[in-house]
UniProtKB/TrEMBL annotation:
Organism per entry: Archangium violaceum Cb vi76
Keyword Signal: yes
InterPro entries tied to this protein: Cyt_c-like_dom, Cyt_c-like_dom_sf
GO molecular function, one term: metal ion binding
Pfam family of the protein (one): Cytochrome_CBB3
Name of the protein described by the UniProt record: Cytochrome C
Keywords from the UniProt entry: Heme, Iron, Metal-binding, Signal
Signal peptide: 1-19
Top-level taxon: Bacteria
Annotated ranges, domain Cytochrome c: 19-106
Length: 108
């Protein structure tokens, strides 16, 4: 019985982690992808028009702290006023998940 319970618990945790991963990808697609592209490179019409930085570049990844990225998502970008503030649209957990998602875009 204990083995069955442990197995069930581990499966539910794995499912929850997968659901969270799907959720952040869905948030990225809904809120970020149109400008930043599917991979953070900003090779979209809007990304090129607004000269949005390539977030997959190691130099950008190194220059930005998690707090910097979190602030840009929450409060919008001071560099580009078209980057909306999402603090009233996303939960702190969703913003943290997006920071991790962006960190996963790093090249090489």
């Amino acid at each position: 019985m204990k083995i069955r319970l442990a197995l069930l618990l581990s499966l539910s945790l794995a499912t929850a982690a997968h659901a969270e991963e799907d959720s952040v990808a869905e948030v990225w697609t809904a809120k970020c992808k149109s400008c930043h592209g599917p991979d953070g490179r900003a090779q979209t019409q809007m990304g090129k028009k607004e000269a949005i930085v390539d977030m997959s570049q190691p130099a950008w990844q190194q220059a930005q702290t998690d707090a910097d990225i979190r602030e840009a998502i929450a409060d919008g970008s001071p560099r580009n006023k078209k980057m909306k503030a999402y603090k009233d649209k996303l939960t702190p957990q969703q913003i943290d998940a997006l920071v991790a998602y962006i960190r996963g875009m790093k090249k090489g």
